[in-house]
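Researcher: Batch entry, complex prediction.
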Amino acid sequence: MFNYTFQWKQVYARLPEMLEGALVTMQIAVLSMVIGIVLAVMLTLFRLSGNRILGGVAQAWVEVARNTPALFQIYMAHFGVASFGIHFSPWTSLLIGITFNNAGYLAENFRGALKAIPDTQARSGRSLGMSELQAFRHIVLPQMLRIAFLPMSNQMVWAVLMTSLGVTVGMNTDLYGVTQDLNALTFRTFELFFVAGVIFYAIVKLIQLATRLIAWRMFRY
Amino acid sequence: MFDTAMTLNDVMFLAQGAGMTILVTLIAVVCGTVLGIIFGVVRYQVGPVWAAPLTFFLDVFRSIPLLIQLVLTFAFIGTVMKIRISGFSVACLVLTLYTSAYCAEIVRGAIESVPPTLRRASRSLGMTWGQDMRHIVLPLATRVAFPSWIGLALSVMKDSALVYVVQVTELLKSTQILITRLQEPLFLLMICGAFYFLISFPIARIGGYLERRWSND
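Model: Structure tokens for the complex:
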């Protein structure tokens, strides 16, 4: 059909390396998601606190994370911060960039979820003798996480896709980085990136399946 | 930080990059929205079984990193099909399809949000399918779709930063070129970030305002 000889064998020989890269990708995505959720809960608390400085910090974080490209945020974590004499490895920069992005988007999701929880919930918790923090921790937070579960799973998919940006700061152990290095060795651009695309697709589908199972298991009542 | 070695030429270079970002975004959003509306209506109209191939095709664009989509398309057209194509065309093509994939989802959701009883009522008043779409579905669905569409347009603008991978020098790439030359990463990145922020933030605010306003009644 095309005047081109596909060389799938070479890619097949390199498949173990690419799968190892996929593991690194997953590792970064999961880590950035876990830290991102913790930070996002913190930002949500800052916004609720009524303290103007803390609220301003949280608001600025969310707006910057949502209104600039993720690639810019990773650049900032790598090259921008280097101006202060702090040098991160590509792995760390990538993690910081994605986590920053995740936390911003998740905090906005949490804000939307909080609106759906009636005030009376927290108030009845308070009148049962809980402190403000206890009421948030035991009453509001579980409901918030449940309502925001679907947006959170979307963000997880985004985190996986965003790991491919690490290559711009010299990351070469994640799936995209490994693929690009192999490309420089073999020049089988189409075959290599096709397989990388298939692996990414499989990871994303796996995450979507897993979140559906978790949602079914956790929210069945 | 403020005593910079940046010259007027460098500023023009950055402005060119910014122009490229806006150009690519505009093309992708305009063409992608038209395509996305077509895909969305088709998907809604033919039902989930017959739309499965289209659904899969669009789903691929949402499940694979944009970088890989760009590289893969460039390699496919350039190396496999042996057609000479500029990076700019590839960037526009891929971003258009990428936009249309998300837009189709928004359009389908918006059409589904129009109560079926309303549409049946219009049909029983003797409206044709086209009239029903034009006078009943379009005004109602637009209210639902518009805020999400603004979000989509903005995210396409931010994602257009990735087209550097097919040799298109947009804002972030031109910033990086200047960083290599001037060695002032923080200052230059601040300018670049401010540009994205100043475009994105007000539009996002307008979108949020419209969403609140239109959801009340």
